[in-house]
Design brief:
The structure is a single chain. It contains nine helices and four strands; from the N terminus they run αααααβααβααββ. With 298 residues, it is mainly α. It has one domain. A two-stranded antiparallel sheet has the order 1-4. It has a two-stranded antiparallel sheet with strand order 2-3. The protein is globular, with a radius of gyration of 20 Å.
Length: 298
């Protein structure tokens, strides 16, 4: 590991320029297309597991409502209704034990597929590949790590729900005893906490998914930049989908097309943030080394 280098404003913009050049040369549209393809099969199982696991600690209808609301804000009401119908039986019927068992099996072979595709893309960005002789162990490790990330998403969603519930429960009391600007301050705090939770998720992705070893210190700035870009992209996509409605020309399949487009566009942002993180860690951090079961790609 090399000695970290201090980042200034000039070097920061230099990193951004280099990031864009490397990002565009890595065929990001092809990688995002692969991730969106696997997401088509992973998405139902992924949401079911997140709802079921989070529902062990929080009301399932509240969890589902949170997810549907987020989808509606970005993809529109039609896409949200499609997802709601898809989840209805899994969430509303009282077959929780059976659903969880079936969901976990589906998870291992379905929902983790999207994260495996993400991992391969991140390996391309990090310029590493697994050694051929470690394929079986590598496959088991990938599934376990992917499962861990899905549980992490559930935990972050649960944390977000609890914080939102606390803020909602205290809003009326605060409005009666404090000036109005306190309410605005609380909303800002809620927004900041949301950014921090998303940053944690991206940090785990960049640290755990690629077949490399790197310091936690070297992923946080890149994860935060990715979160900012993701938040901007989320708002931009919401406006774009609401104005242009690109799925309208596909009829009944329009909602599915919107989901694929959203995953594809979001993956492009994720890959840009990953490239930024790699350059940051390589040139201004302690460096990146292939894991014991991986090797560098020239």
């Amino acid at each position: 590991m090399k000695k970290p280098t201090t980042i200034n404003i000039k070097s920061f913009f230099r990193i951004l320029t280099t990031t864009y050049k490397n990002w565009s040369s890595n065929e990001p549209f092809q990688m995002s297309a692969a991730v969106s393809y696997y997401s088509l099969f992973s998405f139902p199982a992924l949401l079911i597991i997140i709802i079921q696991v989070t529902g062990l600690f929080y009301e399932k209808r509240e969890v589902k409502g949170k997810i549907i609301k987020e989808i509606s804000e970005v993809l529109g009401i039609d896409a949200a209704n499609t997802v709601e119908v898809m989840l209805k039986n899994a969430v509303d019927q009282e077959q929780s034990t059976l659903v969880i068992i079936i969901g976990i099996i589906t998870l291992l072979y379905g929902a983790t597929g999207m994260f495996i595709a993400l991992q391969k893309s991140l390996n391309t960005i990090w310029r590493v590949k697994p050694k051929p002789k470690n394929e079986i162990l590598k496959m088991i490790k990938d599934r376990i790590f992917s499962l861990g990330l899905i549980l992490m998403i559930g935990f972050l969603l649960l944390t977000s729900l609890v914080l939102t519930a606390l803020i909602t429960a205290t809003t009326d009391w605060i409005s009666q005893h404090f000036p109005d600007f306190i309410l605005y301050a609380i909303q800002v705090i809620n927004f900041v906490l949301s950014l921090l939770l998303t940053t944690v998720l991206f940090a785990f992705m960049f640290k755990i998914l690629p077949d490399v070893t790197m310091r936690w210190k070297d992923v946080w700035l890149g994860a935060f930049i990715t979160t900012i870009l993701f938040s901007i992209g989320k708002s931009a996509l919401g406006i774009y989908f609401g104005t242009v409605n690109p799925g309208s020309t596909f009829g009944a399949a329009g909602s599915v097309i919107l989901i694929l487009l959203w995953v594809s566009y979001s993956s492009l942002i994720l890959f840009f943030g990953a490239e930024f993180t790699r350059i940051l860690a390589s040139k201004y951090g302690a460096g990146i080394q292939p894991a014991s079961y991986a090797e560098k790609v020239d």
